Structure formats: structure tokens, C-alpha cells
Amino acid sequence: MADQKAVVGIDIGGTKTLIGLVDRTGEVLVKQQFPTMITDSPEIHIQKCIETVHICLAKAGLTHHSLLGIGVNVPGLADPEKGILLHAPYAGWKNVPVKELLEREWPGMPINIANDVNACALGELIFGIGKQYNSFLWVTISTGIGGGLIIDRQIYEGEHFIAGEVGHLVVQWEEGNLCGCGNRGCLEAHASGTAIAKAAKEKLAALPKDSPFSTYFIERKKDITAQSVAEAAYKGIEEAKEIYQQAGEYIGRAFSYAINIMNPGAIIMGGGVSLSIDLLEPYIRQTFQTAVISEANKNMPILLTDLGYEAALIGAASLIYADIYIGPIKEMNR
Amino acid sequence: MADQKAVVGIDIGGTKTLIGLVDRTGEVLVKQQFPTMITDSPEIHIQKCIETVHICLAKAGLTHHSLLGIGVNVPGLADPEKGILLHAPYAGWKNVPVKELLEREWPGMPINIANDVNACALGELIFGIGKQYNSFLWVTISTGIGGGLIIDRQIYEGEHFIAGEVGHLVVQWEEGNLCGCGNRGCLEAHASGTAIAKAAKEKLAALPKDSPFSTYFIERKKDITAQSVAEAAYKGIEEAKEIYQQAGEYIGRAFSYAINIMNPGAIIMGGGVSLSIDLLEPYIRQTFQTAVISEANKNMPILLTDLGYEAALIGAASLIYADIYIGPIKEMNR
Question: Which of A23-37, A176-190, A209-223, A244-258 has the lowest mean pLDDT?
Fold first, then answer.
């Protein structure tokens, strides 16, 4: 394995940081994770990342001479040109010179950083089902909802690095739920994992204790999460199916906007909630078909990522592989 | 003027076809128009265009040797690569080989064709207020509503040439008006000139005959059009102002979708209804500010074209000037 070339992927997530070596085919050779401690300063967190990279290299029997580069996902707003994490709201980190901190350890090493959702989109483009499309919309449906645009086989970030904000498209104008962003009726406030769990809790509070939905959760002593609601839906509990139907309809509304504006080749989904695609997809499609024009748009492929659990890590590594396979990542709009 | 170089712009509109010579600064040197007769076959219509180009050349004292090329706007779906008008629904024309028909008259002449809305966007980019932006959304608000995207100083047409369909974004999910496209609640069905006139007629039917709104139209024996409703609003008639307020709110909804997805540098509007921008703009902005994230997006410039009545003709000519000033028009997504 000593002559093998690899890329380091660093996926700094809200709860854990996953680091691994990813080879040219997108396979994860080794990986190692540790909790993201928001009590750490960002400098200390990056230092922990550096130590973990050394551990991964040792595990793989490689030195940094085998590295093609380092790709870093950050959970927030990034300036990819300068390699700076501008703002990670959950941790309160601001203006962290991620690239510079890593370059101190490995001078001359190619290092690219990006927002995690954009990195996922790029990973999908290079190693996933997105390979077959020139343009697509990537959507992560998880605790929150994020989106990334691939246009002409490039990440498209927009004038202020905030393109693809699918989670904050308003899908309910009349009586929208309050969103974390301060607006009302955002997709994230109606169809994220958090929103699905909240809808289920409200339904439980409103239903009699002996209803099938209530009984399901009480008997199993299950926490109410998007996942447990999905399990109930798969078991045939009507109220649980309705919650996913409603979420699917709202996702369909947001997709209709993106489709009419972008006319992408496909929409590709990832994230925990998207795994329940068969509960969602009929309602997503039914809704956007009433709200887009042209047959081509009505038949837009809605797909699930095939990169699985390591999608974000592969996404991080793809920030370097993009330079090799596609050419330097161009900020299209600058 | 004999050594002056110019581009022929051909703007085939629904009711008239406008042909002119446009110089390198975007100035219209001469122009000539004739009615678009949908009873004509498309071949006969193109023949009339050819004759009119000859008239324009004669008027300007030029020959075709002075021409840098010919740009043609078509009112429908175009395939710019092949130079084919795929479908002009209003005339029933399909698969018209516009470029080939013109090349028979002028072999070797550079000829580009595009959908009229996309051409307007390009005209704005090269000769208008769009010069200062790398990316913007162009929106024509007229009898109908159309949109064109400029990304990275190129027309972005999407996978099937149908990106930028702002007019068919659903802005009213609950009780939407029926749109010409067959869907309900499209922006075009709520805020186009046609929709504004329809709303005014419905309001007139519902109001007593001696209401200020009714009196305004009855006394003046005015036809009810978007323009006459705007005049009433400028005269302070509340009901007329409300119609524009409602239209502005719906335009704001659609713009919020485009802004969250594309994060463009600006939105630039043209078309008859957009001239009433001061009736619309406060409500457009108020609405999209409640529905986009980030300060940059909330402060998105909403601008009116400065190319005036000849915007579409200049747009047609810019299909050729784009090759000269920006480089060959690239279909970004193919």
C-alpha cells in the first residue's frame, strides 16, 4: 500500500469530525472519528484534526508524501478561495483560516475547503450517481435541509456563496412554521427531520392515547424522531404515513421552484430523512408535476445518493479529486 | 456610414416583427417593422424578414459586407446550437430551421438565434444595466411573464432549454388562478398584465357602480388593461393600488425562490408592467425580504432595464455581439 496515492478527507460535522483517506476510486481506505467539541477553540479543533490525519496515515502505512491533497468540509459558510470558514453558527466559530492552519503542518500541500453540502454535491458528481449529469441539485434532508448546485460540472455558489438554499424556500405562505432562520414557512421548518418529529409530537398530543399512532410509540417506549415515525409508517400506521405525505408534498413544492428556475438534469438526495424515499417520493413527484412546465421537467429524475454513510467524507476528498478529474474548482460566479 | 459595421437584429414578436441595424455601442441605426401574421407559414415569414433586412441595409446605405452577423429572437422554445425555432405556441410554428433559411440568403454569415427572453437578458448584459453583474435574473413582465438567467456572463438555459421559467413558479398553492400552461397558481396567472386586467375586471364586477374605481373607468370610457389600472393607481384610486400591491407581493414570492436558489447579483426587469415599478417594488421587496436568508439576499438590487422600447431588438443584435465581446455563446449546460 506504500505507493498508493490518496486524499485526506476531513468532514467537520456538528457532533463528530470524521477523517479518512480516500483513494482515486472514491473508496475509503481508513477512517477515524472524534467528537466535535464546540467548547474547543477552532484552532484546537484543527490541531486535533491534524493529529488524527497522522493517525490515519500511520494506520494505512503511508506518509504525507503519498497525499494528493486535503479536502475539508465545514458545517457553515465557507470562502473556498481563501480557505476560510466564515461562520459555523452551531459552534460560534468565525473567520477560521482552516487552509492556513493546515498549511503550517504540511507546507505546499494542496488544500481545498467548502461548505459540507457543496462538498457532498461534488462527491456525488465525481464518485456517485451524479456522474451522469452535467447539472443537478443536491439536497441533504437531515436534521436541517441544505442544498448544493452543480452547473456545468462545477459547484455553483452564487454572488455571496449562498446559492442552493433549498431549505429556506418558502413552501407555506399562509400559516408557515417558524424556521431557525427567523422566517416562516421555510421547507426546513416543514420537512426536515426536526420538523417531522415536531409534527409527530403535535399529532400525539392531539390524538387519544389509544389511537394506533399513540399506542405504537407508548408500547415500544420509542423516542419520537423522524426515523421512528418512518418505522411506524412502514408498519402501516396511517398517521405516520400522513406526516411523511405532508413532508413529501412540501419537498415537492420546493423542488418545483428549483426545477422551473434551474432545469437541472436531476435532483439527488442524501441525509437521514431521504432514506425514507419511498414514503416521500410519490408525494414529492405528484406535487412538483402540478407545478412545473414541460414534459422534461415533469419527468425529472429524483434519486437517492449511492455513496451511503460516508458520502460527506468522500465529498471532502472530492474537493481535491475535482482538481484532478475536472480541473481546478472554479468559483463560477466570481 | 459606408464603412460602419453593424449587426442585424430580428425580433419576431407575437404581434409584430421588428428588424434593425444595431451598432457596436448598442445604438439602433435604422429599424423597420411589419405585422407578424400567424396565418403565414414560417418560411414566408422568414422571407419577409429577409426582404426587410434588405430595406434596412438600403436605408443605412450599407451592404451585407458591413454586417458582423444576424441575431434572431424567436417567441418560443429555441435550439440555439442548431438555430432552430422548436416551437412558437402562439403561431403554431414548429421546428423552423431559422438559421438555415437565413444562410441560404447570406452564405457564411454568422447567425445566432435564441428565445426572446434570453436575448433580452443578453442585451442587458452587454449593453444595459446588467453590465455590472456576473450573474443576474432577467424577468419580462408583460402580457405574460418570462425569465432568463445569466450565470458567469453566459445565458444559462438548463438541460432542456427551459431554465429561468419564473412565470410558472407557483406563488399561490391554495387557491391559485388557472394558468395558460395548465397548472394553477403560477406567477403569470397572478401578476402578468393579463392577470392584472383580469383582477381589475373582477373587482369592477364586484364593486358598486359609484365606487371611485368604477367611476374612474366609466367616466373615462377606458379599456381595462394593466396600463389603465396603473394610471388609476397613480391617480390615487385605492382599489387600483391594491391590485398592484397584490401583484407585487406575488412577484416578491417568485423572486424569493429565485434568490434563494441562484443568489444572483441582481434581478433586472423589463416589459410593460415593469414600468409601473414604483407601484410594485415596495411590495416585491417587503415580500422577498421575509422569505430569503442572509443580509446580502435581503438587499438584492431590483432594477428596471435602461434599454427601453428597443430592448428586444438590441437583445437580438447582442446574440452576435456576445460572440465578439464575451466569446462564443456557450450553452453552459451541454
Answer: A209-223
Q: Answer whether residue A17 is part of any domain.
A: yes
* Cβ-based contacts of A165 with chain B (< 8 Å): 260-261, 263, 292-293
Which B-chain residues 311-330 have CB contacts (< 8 A) with chain A? none
Strands A154-156 and A266-270: unpaired
Asked if residue A141 belongs to a domain, the reply is yes
Q: Which amino acid is at B306?
A: D
Residues A66 and A134 grouped into a single domain: no
Say whether A165 and B334 touch across the interface (CB within 8 A).
no
Q: Which amino acid is at A118?
A: N
Q: How far is B308 from chain A (nearest CA, A)?
A: 25
Residue B183 at interface with chain A, using a CB cutoff of 8 Å: yes
Instruction: Name the minimum distance, in Å, from the CA of A311 to any CA of chain B.
Output: 23
Q: Quick one: A193 and A233 in the same domain?
A: yes
CATH number, position B80: 3.30.420.40
pLDDT at position B2 is 47
> In terms of Cα–Cα distance, which of A99, A47, A145, A32 is closest to A319?
A99
- The answer for A 108-137 residues in CB contact with B (under 8 A) is 133-135
Do A137 and A249 belong to one domain?
A: yes
The answer to whether position B121 is within a domain reads no
CA dihedral sign of residues B229, B231, B234, B237: negative
Least CB–CB distance from B291: residue in A163, A170, A260? A170
- When pLDDT is cut at 50, 70 and 90, the band that residue A14 belongs to is confident
**Backbone φ, ψ for residue B213 (5° rounding):** -65, -50
A178 touches chain B (CB under 8 A): no
Nearest to A111 by CA among A98, A94, A123, A124: A98
CA of B238 to nearest chain A CA: how many angstroms apart? 24
**Are A148 and A189 within one domain?**
yes
Total count of domains within chain A: 2
Q: Do B104 and B140 share a domain, yes or no?
A: no
Kindly determine whether residue A293 and residue B156, on different chains, have CB atoms separated by under 8 Å. no
User: How many whole angstroms separate alpha carbon A220 and alpha carbon A222?
Assistant: 5
Check CB contact under 8 Å for B297 and A256: no
Q: Which of B262, B283, B331 to mutate to test the interface with A (most CBs of A within 10 A)?
A: B262
Residue B93 shares a structural domain with residue B145:
no
**Is A163's CB within 8 Å of B262's CB?**
yes
pLDDT(A334) > 50: no
For residues B258 and B265, the answer to whether their CB atoms sit within 8 Å is no
Out of A69, A88, A115, pick the residue that ends a domain. A115
pLDDT of residue B184: 97
The parent domain of residue A181 ranges over: 129-306
Give the number of other Cβ atoms within 10 Å of residue B16's Cβ.
Answer: 11
A104 and A21 together in one domain: yes
Q: Does the ipTM surpass 0.95?
A: no
Number of residues that make up chain A: 334
Write the pLDDT tens digit of every residue in B27-43: 999 999 999 998 889 99
**Nearest-angstrom CA–CA distance, B139 and B98:** 25
Contact call for B185 and A253, based on CB within 8 A: no
- Do both B38 and B14 map to the same domain? yes
Whether A260 is in a domain gets the answer: yes
